[in-house]
From TrEMBL:
<dbReference type="InterPro" id="IPR015421">
    <property type="entry name" value="PyrdxlP-dep_Trfase_major"/>
</dbReference>
<dbReference type="InterPro" id="IPR004839">
    <property type="entry name" value="Aminotransferase_I/II_large"/>
</dbReference>
<protein>
    <submittedName>
        <fullName>GntR family transcriptional regulator</fullName>
    </submittedName>
</protein>
<comment type="similarity">
    <text>In the C-terminal section; belongs to the class-I pyridoxal-phosphate-dependent aminotransferase family.</text>
</comment>
<keyword id="KW-0805">Transcription regulation</keyword>
<dbReference type="Pfam" id="PF00155">
    <property type="entry name" value="Aminotran_1_2"/>
</dbReference>
<dbReference type="GO" id="GO:0030170">
    <property type="term" value="F:pyridoxal phosphate binding"/>
</dbReference>
<dbReference type="Pfam" id="PF00392">
    <property type="entry name" value="GntR"/>
</dbReference>
<feature type="domain" description="HTH gntR-type">
    <location>
        <begin position="20"/>
        <end position="88"/>
    </location>
</feature>
<keyword id="KW-0238">DNA-binding</keyword>
<keyword id="KW-0663">Pyridoxal phosphate</keyword>
<keyword id="KW-0804">Transcription</keyword>
<dbReference type="InterPro" id="IPR000524">
    <property type="entry name" value="Tscrpt_reg_HTH_GntR"/>
</dbReference>
<dbReference type="InterPro" id="IPR051446">
    <property type="entry name" value="HTH_trans_reg/aminotransferase"/>
</dbReference>
<dbReference type="GO" id="GO:0003677">
    <property type="term" value="F:DNA binding"/>
</dbReference>
<dbReference type="InterPro" id="IPR015424">
    <property type="entry name" value="PyrdxlP-dep_Trfase"/>
</dbReference>
<dbReference type="InterPro" id="IPR036388">
    <property type="entry name" value="WH-like_DNA-bd_sf"/>
</dbReference>
Length: 473
């Protein structure tokens, strides 16, 4: 039983909490104070034991509430300094109107519209899980031994040490067949796609095949560089090879390990068909391995590149495992393309930033990167489970797909315009993607929901809001 004395801190009164809801009550009170500016960035929260005593609750309630703020990126638990409020959205200057319009048109996943407090757009990772302590430890180790030459322009293909560590990691975890010199370090998968589009265009390829539904971002990236995209349908076993053949194109971009956005895995028979297709002539598969690290309920799926290294260009990054702001990714292309890609990379930016490359190499070498991934998988499984449970309760008619891996899921709905449905959900304060944004061929309506950026209690709330919004006529 709690007392009702309360605390001078934010005038919190446990008597206002619902039965068996103390942690949620305290967390929401802290969130509200942060949003209102009553807890400014840099404010140190009371010690957990002290606040628990003042409120007359168990210390575990306060510890869990603080941890939820940390998980959401609203606070930071600092050794020796307690829990400190982080910089939050209200403290960030708003861009000018024309810039906001451009961001909306690009549909950037990290640009949250006004009135939305739960961003479930796919592509937003768990930024609060960034391994700050491990990164600082690795950075100190790198700086203690880095030479002046290591910080120069260097090889535009990437820091040699990172390429060595990456190729070892990818051989072990993705069954890649490559050498260190085959790796081109780039500014995320997006730059890898841009470099490939430029090289293919220069070689006379005016169009490539893409999955449908498939990543709108990837499609927009390729088309920005003057290469047309031709949609090819997917089903529960992945890309359909028959329609691919019918396009008459020689290059296809796909996500075989975890198809975006359906979550399908390219089935063994379909893989064999695709590899047969690519070996019939001078053809190319571009494999976007965008979130292969996140796997919960199924066996690992090897990358296609290992089966046909001279026919597959493999793309990956740390955007979903560390943070997209790192802008660190890799491209392993057939050797016949590597010289042109290296020249395009050099012309683009002279090479990726040296220090982050060396720090990532250190994380890989020490095993800290793998330990971080194991921790993140546990967090993401709990978040996925909370969202699925909430959808089953509040939206029982929906078919939920793509739950065994990744950081998003797809809900297919009985009918309706999914753009209009997404707008109704947005009016309830939740941002999701209509499935039609990611397709050009006819198909059932649906919503694509990312779950990586929010803790389980917020995802349960999001599911309730979605269910309520879609149940209204």
């Amino acid at each position: 039983m709690v007392n009702d004395r309360g605390s001078d801190f934010l005038q919190l009164r446990p008597g206002d909490a619902p039965a068996k809801g103390l942690t949620g009550w305290l967390t929401e009170g802290l969130r509200t104070a942060i949003a209102a500016g009553r807890l400014a960035p840099g404010t140190r929260l009371p010690a957990t034991r002290l606040l628990a005593t003042e409120l007359g609750v168990s210390r575990g309630v306060v510890v869990q509430a603080y941890q939820r703020l940390v998980d959401e990126g609203l606070a930071d638990a600092r050794t020796g300094s307690g829990t400190v409020i982080e910089r939050h959205a209200a403290a960030v200057p708003r861009p000018a109107a024309d810039r906001r319009r451009t961001l909306r048109e690009l549909r950037l996943p990290l640009s949250t519209p006004d009135g939305v407090d739960l961003n479930l757009a796919p592509g937003v990772p768990d930024l609060a899980a960034f391994p700050r302590a491990a990164w600082l430890r690795a950075e100190r180790a790198v700086l203690s031994r880095v030479s002046s030459a290591d910080l120069g322009y260097g090889d535009p293909g990437g820091a040699p040490r990172l390429r060595v560590e990456l190729v070892g990691w990818l051989r072990r975890t993705r069954a890649i067949s490559a050498e260190a010199d085959d790796i081109l370090v780039c500014g995320g998968v997006a730059q890898g796609q841009a470099l490939l589009a430029q090289v293919l265009r220069a070689r006379g390829e005016a169009a490539v095949a893409v999955e449908d539904p498939g990543s709108r971002g990837a499609r927009d990236q390729i088309e920005h560089w003057g290469v047309r995209t031709e949609p090819v349908p997917v089903d529960d076993d992945g890309l359909l090879v028959g329609p691919l053949r019918a396009t008459g194109l020689d290059t296809v971009l796909l996500t075989p390990a975890h198809q975006f956005p359906t979550g399908a895995v390219l089935a063994p028979e379909r893989r064999r068909e695709l590899l047969s297709w690519v070996n019939e002539g001078p053809r190319l598969i571009v494999e976007d391995d965008y979130d292969a690290e996140h796997r919960y309920d199924r066996a690992p799926v090897a990358a296609l590149q290992g089966s046909a290294p001279e026919r597959v260009a493999h793309l990956g990054s740390v955007s979903k495992s560390l943070a997209p702001g790192m802008r660190l990714g890799w491209l392993i292309a057939p050797r016949g393309l590597q010289a042109d890609l290296l020249a395009a990379k050099h012309a683009s930016d002279l090479g990726s930033s040296a220090l982050p490359q060396l720090v990532l190499a250190e994380l890989l070498a020490t095993g800290d990167y793998e330990r971080h991934l194991r921790s993140v998988r546990v967090r993401q499984r709990a978040r996925r489970d909370a969202l699925i449970a909430g959808l089953r309760t509040h939206l029982p008619r929906a078919r939920v797909r793509g739950v065994a891996a990744g950081l998003h899921l797809l809900i297919e709905l009985p009918g309706g315009d999914d753009v209009e449905l997404a707008e109704r959900v947005r009016a309830a304060g939740v941002l999701v993607h209509p499935l039609s944004w990611h397709r050009r061929l006819p198909g059932p309506p649906g919503l694509v929901l990312g779950y990586a950026a929010h803790p389980p209690d917020r995802l349960s709330e999001a599911a309730a809001r979605i269910g309520h919004a879609l149940s209204r006529r």
